[in-house]
Write a structure and sequence with these properties.
four-stranded antiparallel beta sheet; alpha+beta; Translation Initiation Factor IF3; 13 helices; about 10% strand; 2 domains
Length: about 325
């Protein structure tokens, strides 16, 4: 009896929990999960539809604005690099509005460095005192300012070749320059910008640095990159016959063309040249003599002793 009851109780104790687990532990949670999914489905659909709509709206709006901006810039003659940079800034701003927070800006580090430099700047009281001193001097009829105070600092950041370029512009006026572009007028591509003969005309020792020289002089406010051509059209024909210009036109293909421009001094640059550069005391012959001296101080036109002896021998045999 005890064995049978024990066996019966054992079977009942082992079998009953299995049936209870199968009914309450497996089937009931499955029904609750399915019901939860059915209840959450409308909310999830609304969230998905709202996200899709906002994304589509932002995409269409940003595409239209960026396309309009690039078309307007192309019509105004802006370079492709400027157009792409403007489009990137506009898309970044739209992303900030869409996400509701700031997007990492590649210029943030530069802005932080500028802010750090601003912290080291003199206080506003000192700057105001210096400004008041300038106004006091301007009201003083006995105060005479011989030269502009910036000229001394400009001379410290000019290269010798840049002085030659400024002297050329001061003596011979505006110099011709051409841009080589390819493609249709509204969608053209810049092949070779700022082709000019200034380096050769000025006698620069490093003509490969011409664009860097011009950028530095422009940064100092001494020259203008004008869209207006010079009056002597023949000078452009000579410039367009140079090998580098011909190569750029060949690279541009059948739609390549030249856009004529000019480079000239600003009024500030003219005054700087008149004050700081000895335009009247150094003539072109003196500069050509300096250019003719080799890197070791030797005159390349001077005949070597061996060459002179061979020349005398040939003359005597004749």
């Amino acid at each position: 009896m005890n064995d049978e009851s024990g066996q019966t109780n054992g079977e009942t104790g082992a079998e009953t929990p299995r049936q209870s687990y199968g009914e309450a532990g497996a089937e009931t949670p499955r029904q609750s999960y399915a019901e939860a999914v059915r209840e959450a489905a409308p909310g999830l659909a609304r969230i998905y539809a709202s996200m899709w709509w906002r994304t589509a709206e932002w995409t269409v709006e940003s595409s239209l604005r960026a396309g309009t901006r690039m078309l307007t810039g192309a019509l105004s003659g802006r370079s492709p690099a400027d157009l792409v940079q403007s489009a990137e800034e506009e898309v970044r701003e739209y992303a900030r509005q869409l996400l509701g927070r700031d997007v990492e800006d590649p210029t943030a580090e530069h802005a932080r460095s500028e802010a750090s430099a601003a912290d080291d700047a003199p206080p506003a009281t000192d700057l105001r005192a210096r400004g008041a001193e300038l106004l006091r001097r301007s009201a003083d009829v006995h105060y005479v300012e011989a030269v502009h105070p910036a000229y001394a600092r400009i001379l410290e950041v000019l290269a010798p070749d840049e002085a030659r370029i400024l002297r050329l512009l001061a003596l011979k006026g505006a110099q011709p320059a051409v841009d080589i572009r390819a493609g249709l007028p509204l969608v053209s591509e810049l092949i070779a910008p700022g082709q000019t003969m200034i380096a050769a005309e000025a006698g620069c020792r490093h003509p490969d640095r011409l664009h860097a020289y011009l950028n530095n002089i422009d940064r100092l406010g001494l020259i203008w990159f004008s869209r207006e051509p010079v009056r002597e059209r023949l000078r452009y024909q000579v410039l367009e016959a140079q090998p580098e210009v011909i190569e750029a036109i060949r690279k541009g293909g059948r739609t390549a063309r030249t856009v004529r421009r000019s480079i000239l001094l600003t009024p500030f640059g003219e005054d700087f040249c008149d004050v700081c550069l000895p335009l009247d005391t150094i003539d072109s012959e003196t500069l050509s003599e300096v250019d003719s001296v080799g890197p070791e101080g030797e005159d390349p036109q001077a005949e070597k002793p061996e060459a002179a002896a061979e020349s005398e021998a040939e003359n005597s045999s004749m």
